[in-house]
UniProtKB/TrEMBL annotation:
One of its GO terms (biological process) is mitochondrial respiratory chain complex IV assembly. This is Cytochrome c oxidase assembly factor 5. GO terms for cellular component: mitochondrion. InterPro entries: Cyt_c_oxidase_assmbl_Pet191. Belongs to the PET191 family. Involved in an early step of the mitochondrial complex IV assembly process. Keywords: Disulfide bond. The lineage of its organism: Eukaryota, Metazoa, Chordata, Craniata, Vertebrata.
Length: 75
């Protein structure tokens, strides 16, 4: 579930909840915080892989013609 922040505009883009969780996972991971690496480097090492896959699946479902019947994933 996306985290709640006061005084924050709601993101209405597709897959916004998963995007926010994925971003928070990367920025709060020890790889970034303690080791001082870039989030892109941590992704290559395989951190937050489950959220990365979920975000990819959500974005891919936007292009899937069957989604007009089922609805987008992650919303």
């Amino acid at each position: 579930m996306p985290k709640y922040y006061e005084d924050k505009e709601e993101d209405t883009r597709a897959c916004a909840g998963i995007r926010e969780d994925f971003k928070a996972c990367l920025l709060q991971h020890d790889c970034v915080v303690k080791e001082g690496k870039m989030p892109s480097e941590c992704l290559k090492e395989g951190h937050c892989k489950a959220l990365q896959t979920s975000f990819f699946e959500c974005k891919r479902s936007m292009l899937d013609t069957r989604s007009r019947f089922r609805g987008r994933k992650g919303d």
